Automatic annotation (TrEMBL):
Domain ABC transmembrane type-1: 87-297
Gene3D superfamilies xref list: MetI-like (1.10.3720.10)
MF terms (GO), sorted A to Z: phosphate transmembrane transporter activity
The keyword Transport is annotated on this UniProt entry: yes
Gene Ontology biological process terms in this record: phosphate ion transport
Subcellular location: Cell membrane
Organismal lineage: Bacteria, Bacillati, Bacillota, Bacilli, Bacillales
Keyword Transmembrane helix: yes
This protein's name: Phosphate transport system permease protein
């Protein structure tokens, strides 16, 4: 009623003011969201950096010995804090799971985008979403109930092993590899395919020699993102890997990772003690590796030509 009494010029001015207010509100909201995200990242980095360095600065632990020694016995008469077996375990399960997930994930992406583009996504997309939605504890429980006994009875060893952790992790990172690879292949311009077919190339020659080469930086990004997730996974791996402090001599031996040792021991140590501080140091190693993965992904992104 009130708006009806306003002239057309007044309504236009009022509308312009409302638009300006909406612009200001929107700008404040997105700026605040960005600042909160940046502040949280900086705060976590500073906090974890200061806590992780305490074992070296306050407790006098040798950083070289911490990284390279294989002797981990924090409750002995002469406590030792060699984290190399756990660093090795983290890298081993990460690279081995990437070796399994990369060809499977990229192959599934090729099927979805090049072989069966009309119905491939309709079938595989819900499967991928289901894999993403399954909690990590469920993966670990299935691994503990099915995979560990299967490996013990058919392959050898006690079942709890690097191999069990690798298989569980490769399934967990598969959706990440498939999703990003599918987007990378689908975003390639059609003239690449048409030009290859016009020169007489077959479908497989086009996929192998044209599309995969063109999308290679994005495909590598997909694999590295999967590796980043695998490196930080804790619960599912902890349930199947065995959690021992010895260095494994084969893929069928039990092992441990940085994340599994942190989750197992964090609740049993006194805050501020040397053992507690070494667990924070392991957390700092995980953070540094996360930064390394991100830098590598940024480098791969900068190499994209299409």
């Amino acid at each position: 009623m009130k708006n009806k009494e306003l002239s057309a010029q007044d309504r236009l001015i009022l509308s312009k003011k409302n638009r300006r207010l909406d612009e200001v509100r929107g700008k404040i909201y997105v700026t605040a969201a960005a600042l909160i995200m940046i502040s949280a990242t900086i705060a976590i980095t500073i906090f974890l950096g200061s806590k992780g360095m305490q074992s070296f600065i306050t407790n006098g632990l040798n950083i070289f010995e911490f990284i390279t020694s294989t002797d981990w016995n924090p409750v002995g008469e002469n406590p030792s804090f060699g984290a190399f077996p756990f660093i090795f375990g983290s890298f081993a399960v990460t690279f081995l799971s990437a070796l399994i997930a990369a060809p499977l994930g990229i192959g599934a992406a090729i099927f979805m985008t090049e072989i069966a583009p009309s119905w491939g996504r309709k079938i595989l997309q819900p499967v991928i979403e289901l894999l993403v939605g399954i909690p990590s504890v469920v993966y670990g429980f299935i691994g503990l109930t099915v995979l560990v006994p299967f490996l013990r009875d058919n392959i050898g060893g006690i079942g709890f092993s690097l191999l069990a952790g690798t298989i569980v992790l490769s399934i967990m990172i598969l959706p990440t590899v498939i999703s990003i690879s599918t987007d990378a292949l689908a975003s390639l311009p059609n003239n690449l395919r048409e030009g290859s077919y016009a020169l007489g190339a077959t479908r497989w020659q086009t996929i192998r020699k044209v599309l995969l080469k063109a999308a290679m930086p994005s495909l590598l990004t997909a694999v590295v993102l999967g590796m980043a997730r695998a490196f930080g996974e804790a619960l599912a791996v902890q349930m199947v890997i065995g959690n021992v402090r010895e260095l494994p001599s084969s893929i069928l031996d039990a092992s441990a990772t940085l994340t599994t040792i942190i989750t197992l021991n964090m609740g049993h140590t006194t805050y501020g003690s040397l053992e507690n501080n070494t667990l924070w140091s392991m957390g700092l190693i995980l953070l540094v590796m996360s930064f390394a993965f991100i830098l590598f992904i940024r480098y791969l992104s900068s190499r994209r030509k299409i």
